[in-house]
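Protein modeling request. Please complete all fields; requests missing the sequence field cannot be processed.
Requester role: graduate student
Desired output: 3D structure, token encoding
Chains: 1
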Amino acid sequence: MRLKASHIRYIADKIARDLVNANYVEILTNDKDIIRVASKYLEDNINTELAIEEKAKRFIDDNIDMIESNGADDKRLFSMIKRKFADDESFILTWDDRYSNLSHKIMDELIDTSIINFSVSEMMIKNLIFKSINTYAKSYKDIEENVIERIKNYKKKLLVGTEEYDLVFEKMYEEELKKQGFL
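Delivered output (183 residues):
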């Protein structure tokens, strides 16, 4: 489940809300600071992955003649090259490990900048942040599909890619997030 830049604010908001609602966490500043820290790490992670993918695409483009002459499977080759470049940059591609790493970074900064205090182990805080990210990541595809289905049944026909479609999609997506407790 690949996260997109458009998901950052929703995930960051979920992390903040879950920390605020945890009875064992004391927020020393405000939830906007939690959102800012979480957003920073999520954005950095997503941008790093995009850069690795771009590097893999350039590699394939630069070597397309050799690749085509060997009859390589494009998707498999892209995946292998991406994995190699990710390893070179010590970037984690496996989701559980990646979310765990992100959760540690977010937690560490929240502690180091005195945004939160807590009366439990750091592992519980890290796990709470991990669960926030993971819950959203597992749900967003279903939410998107529900919204697309609702738009198909919308009284006015909207064309995908138009500004009006995008505005309606965003509004309905946020409504669906609210229904499911993400906002």
